[in-house]
Amino acid sequence: MAKESAESLSVFTQAATQSVALPDISALQAIYTIARGSSDAAANILSYEMMRELGVPVTSLPPSVFSLGDGVAMDHAAALVVSQSGASDDLVRSAKGARARGARVLALTNQPDSAVEAAADLTVPIGAGPERAVPATKTVIGAIAAGMALLHALKPAYDPAPSASALQDIAPQHPDAQRLKSAFLRARHVYVIGRDTGFGAAQEVALKLKECCALHAEAYSSSEVLHGPLQLATNPLMVLILDTGAAPVQDSLDQAEARFRDAECDVHRLRPRDVIDADLLPAAAAALLLALMYPVILDTALALGLNPDTPETLSKVTQTT
């Protein structure tokens, strides 16, 4: 995990700047993302970026619609299937089913010649190379980047190249890594909070804390968390805010931070500007926050006596229905 996560920003630069030749996609009215686990977090990040840039709905569709049911009408829509292995049976069925019901199937995968790729109209390779640790790191960040390259093909004015260039020489090490590790070691319950593309990043960090550290963590939008979930602040709670730096989300994140500090929670806020002075696209900022968090989660797991490369109950490719 240490080696692979250290390669993540290099993978990002390569995947984000690749050329994508689109199939004929006319009258596109919606995009449905289909993914599970870390890939679903990457898809969530991309959904916000694509909605902002394309002006069409982009939302998650559960694979079970196709793997357990007869599917749904997909005319004038694209199905974006995100899968590092491209091998999970429910995702393969979803790709085939979406295409049969009228969708253009676009895939982001890391394994060449996968079953998902065979069912897709277009595959944008993640290109991360072999990833052997069970927790996905460089393939998650590569999937975000590959999706940005796809978005560039859909809308040429959207250009991920400047963000990719800004990140290529960044060492994925947060200056407060030790303080964050100490906070995780004290914590029993963690809220990971974001907004827009930062919400997908929050989902991925919460998943990694569970996967690598066996630590209870939940991801929330900074607006949603102020409803019922805020009540858990009456118990000892660590709050990690992932701030992409995007201007429209600042008021929401500020309000959430103030409310949790008033409740005397252990609050930490991470921003891209902690390590870089550059204007990043929101999806690239989310990818950078993940790259900064992966080493902290790894070190926390090791301090707990756990082996994050091979979590006890997990395997690299999860077969689900």
From TrEMBL:
Gene Ontology biological-process annotations: carbohydrate derivative metabolic process
Alphabetical UniProt keywords: Aminotransferase, Repeat, Transferase
GO terms of molecular function: carbohydrate derivative binding; transaminase activity
Family matches, as CDD domains: SIS_GlmS_GlmD_1, SIS_GlmS_GlmD_2
Gene3D superfamilies reported in the protein's UniProt record: Glucose-6-phosphate isomerase like protein, domain 1 (3.40.50.10490)
InterPro entries reported in the protein's UniProt record: GlmS/AgaS_SIS, GlmS/FrlB_SIS, SIS_dom, SIS_dom_sf
PROSITE patterns in alphabetical order: SIS
Protein name: Glucosamine-fructose-6-phosphate aminotransferase
Organism per entry: Thalassorhabdomicrobium marinisediminis
